[in-house]
Design brief:
Length: 226
């Protein structure tokens, strides 16, 4: 397995696209490493990505839906998505548990496991982390590890995890409301109340469901068009 990893690094340095089996190996490796560290360390990792300059759509793809990575006409994956997986692996390798478990990966027949299966494994870890981070922000708003804009990015990831078809851009208004605009130009607005973050709508800014303990935001409703 270690030899395979070394060869993969050498090969990927000289190509612009990779096959599904090679991409699967990267996703499997990332999942294994994510599963080897503590929840608090996963939170630190996710927090570092939220505070990065990576746009929300590719970040959501990386954290929640590796199976949705696009392919070219030859059904091969771009080097960008592979490099994203390797970036996560590199950051996880800073943790002692990941280094200690580095040799515990077993050889696996990747023909018997789908990218959808691996995507589900990824979400079981990362979606829980995003929820914990948002609950932390709601419970202690005076001592949060995020700027207001980064909290909006966190909200965008939390909402995306509930509906992986969404691709959001993030904007803060003068009231510090978080506006998420999807590819259909529908705008979803979230505001901080004393109990936490709620979706608000209408001229009266009536709060709807609380993000962290209410039902999934109703995406089929009539939305604001920009």
């Amino acid at each position: 397995m270690k030899l395979y990893r070394v060869l993969m690094v050498l090969v990927l340095g000289n190509v612009l696209a990779v096959t599904e089996i090679d991409y699967k190996m990267e996703v499997y490796t990332t999942n294994h490493m994510l599963g080897s560290i503590e929840p608090g360390e996963v939170d630190e990792l996710v927090q570092s990505f939220i505070c990065s300059f990576i746009a929300i759509p590719p970040l959501a793809l990386l954290l929640f839906a590796p199976e949705s990575a696009p392919t070219d006409a030859n059904e091969e994956y771009s080097l960008d998505v592979v490099e994203g997986e390797q970036t996560i692996q590199l950051r996880i390798s800073d943790y002692d548990a990941a280094r200690q478990n580095a040799g515990e990966m077993v050889d696996i027949n990747l023909d018997n496991i789908t990218l959808s299966d691996m995507g589900g494994t990824r979400r079981n870890i990362t979606e829980a982390s995003v929820r914990r981070l948002l609950e932390e922000v709601e419970s202690d708003p005076e001592n949060v590890p995020f700027s207001t804009h980064e909290i909006c990015r966190l909200i965008a990831l939390f909402v995306t995890a509930k509906d992986l078809t969404k691709r959001f851009t993030v904007v803060l208004d003068s009231r510090r409301d978080c506006h998420l605009t999807d590819e259909s130009h529908c705008v979803y607005r979230y505001r901080k109340f004393s109990e936490g973050y709620y979706e608000v709508s209408g001229i009266n800014n009536r709060p709807g469901a609380k993000l962290t303990n209410g039902p999934r935001p109703p995406y089929n409703k009539c939305c604001t068009i920009t």
